[in-house]
Amino acid sequence: MYFCIKQQFNGLTKEECLTLGELCRIAKNLYNAGLYNVRQYYFEHKEFLNDGKNCHLVKTNENHKLLNSNIAQQILKKVNEAFQSSFDLAKQGKDNYKAISLAKYLKRSRRPKTIGD
Question: Rounded distance, CA 35 to CA 25, Å?
Fold first, then answer.
């Protein structure tokens, strides 16, 4: 079962909403860049790329430079968790292993939504 916490930001100005939306977009782009590295490494070497090696590959990415290093590392750990779970399911040898898919990229968003739009 998954739990979700919904945050409501009622007192934010339009600039703060745009900044928050921009940070979310940067985090999503970093997630997708990290997942791209893990998927490409898996397709080429049939091995799992851990988050330590992935962090060194992503350090040159502009999205990594825009975020604090601790936030970027946590995002790459989430990439690791997403890919590792599908990798572990395939190792278990379930009967429906063909139905197991690799972690998917996050969808591209058009622009950040602001309160009152």
Answer: 15
